[in-house]
Amino acid sequence: MAYVGGAGLNTTKRCLDGTRTEILQQIIGWITSRDVKVPRILWLHGQAGRGKSAIAHTIASWVKDVGGVGSCFCFVRDRQSEHREEKMFTTIARDLAGRDPVFRRALAHALAEDHTLKATPDVAQQWQRLILDPLSK
Questions:
Q1: Angle at CA 108, nearest 5°, toward 104 and 113?
Q2: Which pLDDT score is estimated for 93?
Q3: Domain limits of the chain?
């Protein structure tokens, strides 16, 4: 499956110590919540230059440090011509499969049923078949 190198965790891009503590604690609280009604996916978005990447790298680093399962995918303006958005969910699916054997088996089953999922640019189909369906198992 397509994998975007350089889109994931970069610990040099973390928040400076003592900064953005409120939003970081909110996100960590969301991650550690056991409430079944809490959504399990966070989409961090906002205006350019507001620190989204630093927050994402800080949280991804924390998740990795505590042994959690997750994926970090960051977009970079100067690489838009690479159509990285078409490979976002294949990259995330591979990351999750590498960290969780149950997800890996469910993903392998989905790919065995439909090998075109490995390279389709259809992000809606990727989202459903490579992320949501395996997570539901």
A1: 155
A2: 95
A3: 80-136
